[in-house]
Amino acid sequence: MYTHCPECGTAFRITTGQLRMGQGRVQCAKCGTLFDAISSLSDVAFEDHFSDLRKLPTLPMEQALPPPIDRQPQENAGIAIAPQRKQPRASSPRSGWLPGVAALFALLILQFSVFEGERLAQNPSIRPWLEGFCAYLGCVLPAYRDPAAIEILERSLEPAGPDTLGFRAVMINGSRFQQAFPRLRLDLIKLNGEPLARRIFFADEYFSDEASLQNLMAVGKPFEIRLRIVKPDDEIGGYDFSLM
User: Which of 56, 163, 167, 168 is most deeply buried (CB count within 10 A of its CB)?
Assistant: First the structure.
């Protein structure tokens, strides 16, 4: 096979081994030009340039173009890779004010808890919502109180000894919620209708055991209380009993 230099026109014999070595590119032994030998391959030499084919030079093996340079960058070849900066995500207009609204809402709840918590906790319409809210946050609501929803089933005032009177009452919680035990007000009345004595009893006074004090009045469950009081000197004409 023959090829020729496109720069000076010199023709050379070339072998397939030389073509493979340089991957088709060779260097002219006469003028030093690098050229693509494959594009000018021929089975015969060009007669207009050469008359004696026997005198055509063979391209020296060392003139074949060396293998192409690996264009992949070598590792740590003196070039540092700049760190990629993450572009900040474009925030929607809502993302800026949602945390502020949540903080204001939490502050509002805190203010209500401090100044209106007791009153709101006693509202039967709002209390279920507050109970769910406290179950999530782990807070504790004040005990529910609704003495008007407690129905008195039985009551009596009878002598219990020479100098004592025994008071008994049975009542039931008719509200929607468990509630704290009420205060009891007992009024003694003279025979002529005038007030004789009054006493307000707290739960720790009409319950003798500590366990009862720790509990709340169950809904729809009747319970009994008993009191012993000192008999006054004047005759008792009647009594009045109420819950507070």
Answer: 167
Structural domains of the chain, count: 3
| Residue at 82 is within a domain | no
Q: Which two tokens stand for residue 42?
A: 């021929």
Would residue 85 count as lying in a domain? no
Cβ neighbours for 14, distance < 8 A, ≥ 6 positions apart: 1, 2, 3, 26, 37, 41, 58, 59
Report the alpha-carbon distance of residue 224 to residue 107 in Å, rounded. Answer: 44
Same domain assignment for residues 53 and 135? no
Please report whether residue 131 resides in a domain.
Answer: yes
pTM: 0.49
Which three-class secondary structure string do you get for 128-172?
Answer: HHHHHHHHHHCCCCCCCCCHHHEEEEEEEEEECCCCEEEEEEEEE
DSSP string covering 18-65, please?
HHHHHTTEEE-TTT--EEESGGG-BSS--TTT-S-GGGPPBPPGGGBP
pLDDT tens string 112-151: 555 666 777 788 888 888 888 788 878 888 889 999 999 9
Domain that holds residue 16: 2-63
Helix (H, G, I), strand (E, B) or coil at 66: coil
For the chain, what is the largest distance between any 2 Cα atoms, rounded to a whole number of angstroms? 162
What is the CATH classification number for the domain harbouring 231?
Answer: 2.60.40.10
